[in-house]
Amino acid sequence: MKTNVLLLALIALISSLSFNATAGELKTDNEKFSYAVGFQIAQSLKRDALEINVDILLDAIKAVLKDSKLKMTTAEMQAAIQSFQAKEMAKRNAAGTESKKAGEKFLAENKKKKGVT
């Protein structure tokens, strides 16, 4: 869900931006603003440790902004996001189970030591 909201907000925000800036030169306020928005998007994706194919992400953004034909239907996109979220939840649950087992093992071993009540 967080990913959906983030992507929709990004698309809405980027919809007024142009892709005219050349590498290394940011002259206009719009180019600077566009770069800053790109930085914020990247920071968010990095912070969330999402494995994103940047080229595909940019293809989707450009398709929406240019009103081009999309490579997926909205139903397919929703299914892809739900599948990703389910996989991430399974990873987190597995990690939580392992942490719980390690904690229980520590407590069981620690209570056998002298001076531990």
Q: Can you give keywords for this protein?
A:
117 residues, mainly alpha, 4 helices, elongated
Describe this structure as you would to a colleague.
This protein has 4 helices and no strands. By secondary structure, the protein is mainly alpha-helical. The longest helix is centred in the last third of the chain and has 37 residues. The protein is elongated and about 70 Å long. The mean pLDDT is 84.
Query: Helicity level, as a percent range?
Result: 55-70%
Span from first to last CA?
45 Å
Quickly count the helices.
4
Outline the biggest β-sheet: none
Q: Spans with pLDDT under 50 lasting ≥5 residues?
A: none
Tally of DSSP β-strands: 0
* Strand residues, percent: under 5%
The whole-angstrom Rg is: 22 Å
Secondary-structure element series: HHHH
Structural class designation: mainly alpha
Q: What is the overall silhouette? A: elongated
Mean pLDDT: 84
In short:
The protein is an all-alpha fold. It has helices spanning 2-14, 29-47, 54-65, 74-110.
Give the SSE layout.
Blueprint: H1 2-14, H2 29-47, H3 54-65, H4 74-110
